Amino acid sequence: xxxxxxxxxxxxxxxxxxxxxxxxxxxxxxxxxxxxxxxxxxxxxxxxxxxxxxxxxxxxxxxxxxxxxxxxxxxxxxxxxxxxxxxxxxxxxxxxxxxxxxxxxxxxxxxxxxxxxxxxxxxxxxxxxxxxxxxxxxxxxxxxxxxxxxxxxxxxxxxxxxxxxxxxxxxxxxxxxxxxxxxxxxxxxxxxxxxxxxxxxxxxxxxxxxxxxxxxxxxxxxxxxxxxxxxxxxxxxxxxxxxxxxxxxxxxxxxxxxxxxxxxxxxxxxxxxxxxxxxxxxxxxxxxxxxxxxxxxxxxxxxxxxxxxxxxxxxxxxxxxxxxxxxxxxxxxxxxxxxxxxxxxxxxxxx
Length: 351
Hints:
This protein is α+β, with helices and mostly antiparallel strands. The protein has helices spanning 38-46, 94-104, 109-122, 138-150, 168-184, 196-202, 220-225, 230-236, 323-329; strands at 3-11, 14-22, 27-31, 53-58, 61-65, 70-71, 79-82, 156-160, 188-192, 205-210, 213-218, 239-247, 249-252, 257-259, 265-273, 279-281, 291-303, 306-312, 317-321, 336-341, 347-350.
């Protein structure tokens, strides 16, 4: 069953007007600048904000249709929600917080507590079942909130900036855990985030929301190749590569070895290479760059006073250079060029 929404909502001078069709077994990430309507969209889907016009339908069930008067209250929708601040009850321990979601669906207290403890074990918090939120770290609170959302076995999972409250050291580990939980969840999954790395690592498809409307959809590489706005160009322009870390060396999926700086790690990881850090040369450069690759120009697009050069071959990258550099190099699609990046310009992180 798909979650289908044609949502129109007015909030003062702001209007959300979007159409979405989210299939099962696919994680959709909604990204957009502040005030674009991301959280409003999530609240509409959860039933926390009724529509002014349109419909929200899940399979044959109509959640919201102002024209017919149909409206299913949030507690009766098969939806689990993880809020940005986790919205845990400070006076309840972890078990009671998770059990609350079950109790709201009519499960008896004893059974709810038993199921809650089982879920806490599943998210690695079995030893913290009696702890209150103030006694838990940000990552642990997130796992309690995720367990509470999943315990009633919803068909739809909505996550509002689930990693935003975590520090950098916790974020990487929790991103990996969250990806595992999302992969094992068989229903509809929608993630609201502002972080392109979270979107890249957790989502199958990205929806860009600006000024209350969807302006572009696709994978991060598809968005980067043809950005529809300055926001998309900046957001999706970052080169993200997945592979394996071996000390300070990163081995991409294609087998290309990339020297990094500032990290020593082993195991799965990813790289962030800013497009502006990639220098292009007609001949192989000499000197300080430790990373050089002979790649093919796939496309050249001028945007906002800069030129974005899409590169393909052993690596797929986006380089951003000036119009004058483009003219000096006489760049053309199909041309072979050397791309160079200093190790200090590359950010590596374990998965």
